[in-house]
Write a structure and sequence with these properties.
The protein is α+β, with helices and mostly antiparallel strands. The chain is built from nine helices and eleven strands. Strand 8 and strand 9 form a beta hairpin. Helix 1 packs antiparallel against helix 2, helix 4 runs antiparallel to helix 5 and helix 6 crosses helix 7. The two termini are 58 Å apart.
Length: 427
């Protein structure tokens, strides 16, 4: 007696034209995404070039102004030397006044210290109103200590072995100019950051409009053939010459299409979230999905959650996420391998972690960073939208997270879903 091995349910194959159209759409989405990313990088590079150019130019201005102020102080020192060493019948007051005016014009703080190390005249040192003599001397001494750290003193030769010194610090204008590049850089970075936020917001808004329009149109287009199919199901049932199992199988597919239509119609609308037993939903859906993929793919669910653990979910949309990730895993394994789904709640965290690990071909870091981009896919067929929609459903509708936890080429990939957990009271 010959035993027949059970045949797998034939998989639906896309028409070559449909495959070509999906590839065109995927390339179009990727081109749009890459083009917008290119503009983002161009803006960043332009801001960087402007910032670097501004830093170098301002630094050059600072150096020139610093040299000029040093020359002004040297002239001031020369003026003091001439006044002290000049004969009594020579009048240098006019020249000295011009030099003093130049120092005062640039507001260069300066203190002259005589040969006895006693500070005498000072220029551009600000004192509080109604300051006492002792307080004035203390302020001069503090300023003098600061000046000694800023610049080497300018000597004033007084003759007969005597010499004084002039200590000075940068003018307020030079100080402003020295710190201006950092302020300017901060402003440019802020402008760049705001531009990036505006660009990202506009891009997300545009993508959302595309997603919503595409989903609504898909749901609308599916409505008419579904109504027709339901009519055919009733017709087959009413005809006694037609095997009733045919109508039952068609009805199963129609119900499946109705669920898909409901999913697409929910995109762009605020979904209804209900308290659902997360472990039961995942387990039941994995059992359902296991019968509809290759029999060479083994599914295992590892539930580490409390029995009564619930969370806010939209069941239809959440099952869509699980389906997209699992089907992506099946394709990555070429229909042969294992998929492990682990549900756990980390200690002292109000979260639920759902890890979906496969034994597929894995991804490089570059691929993992783009896996959720619209149109990106490692497969030859498909639109590259499944994981993008899954991420949006989890993050936009369930306030959770979806990301690639680990991926190693030749060993497999693990996706992690994080959801907010309801508190379970221990009995």
């Amino acid at each position: 007696m010959i035993s027949e091995t059970p045949k797998e349910k034939p998989r639906f194959k896309l028409h070559p034209v449909a495959i070509l159209n999906s590839q065109r759409l995927r390339r179009s989405l990727m081109d749009t995404y890459d083009q917008k990313s290119f503009y983002k990088y161009v803006i960043g590079i332009i801001l960087l070039i402007l910032s670097i150019g501004s830093l170098f130019y301002t630094d050059k201005l600072v150096e020139e102004l610093e040299e000029r102020e040093e020359r002004e102080v040297q002239l001031y020192a020369e003026g003091l030397r001439y006044v002290v060493n000049s004969p009594l019948d020579e009048n240098f007051n006019v020249i000295y006044q011009v030099i003093e005016d130049a120092v005062n014009f640039y507001q260069i703080p300066a203190i002259y210290v005589d040969e006895n190390n006693i500070p005498n005249p000072n220029k551009n040192i600000k004192f509080p109103a109604k300051v006492s003599r002792q307080e004035r001397e203390r302020i001069i001494q503090e300023k003098l200590e600061e000046m000694k750290l800023e610049h080497p003193p300018i000597p004033v030769e007084l003759g007969k072995g005597r010499a004084g010194k002039i200590y000075y610090s940068n003018s307020f204008l030079l100080t402003q100019l020295r710190y201006y590049p950092f302020l300017q850089l901060s402003v440019m970075l802020l402008i760049g950051y705001l531009a990036y936020l505006a660009f990202s917001s506009a891009r997300k808004a545009e993508q959302n409009r595309v997603w919503v329009g595409l989903a609504k149109e898909t749901a609308h287009q599916l409505g008419t053939p579904l109504s027709s199919l339901m009519a055919w199901v009733e017709y087959f049932r009413s005809d006694p010459s037609i095997d009733p199992s045919i109508a039952e199988e068609i009805e199963k597919d129609v119900i499946r299409l109705e669920m898909i239509t409901t999913r697409f119609s929910n995109i762009g609308s605020i979904p209804t979230l209900r308290q659902e037993p997360i472990a039961d939903i995942v387990t039941h859906f994995i059992n359902y999905l296991e019968k509809r993929v290759s029999s060479k793919v083994k599914f295992e669910v590892h539930n580490q959650l409390a029995e009564e653990q619930t969370t806010l979910l939209n069941k239809n949309l959440f099952e869509w996420v699980i389906e997209n990730i699992c089907k992506n895993a099946v394709d990555a394994m070429s229909g042969v391998g294992e998929i492990h789904v682990t549900l756990q709640a980390p200690p002292r965290a109000k979260e639920i972690w759902i890890d979906i690990a496969d034994t597929g071909k894995g991804m490089t870091k570059a691929q993992a960073s783009k896996i959720f981009n619209p149109g990106f896919s490692t497969k030859k067929r498909g639109w590259g939208l499944g994981l993008t929609l899954a991420k949006r459903i989890i993050e936009n509708y369930h306030a959770g997270k979806l990301f690639v936890k680990t991926s190693e080429v030749g060993k497999g990939t693990t996706f992690r879903i994080i959801l907010n957990a309801d508190i379970v009271e221990e009995s």
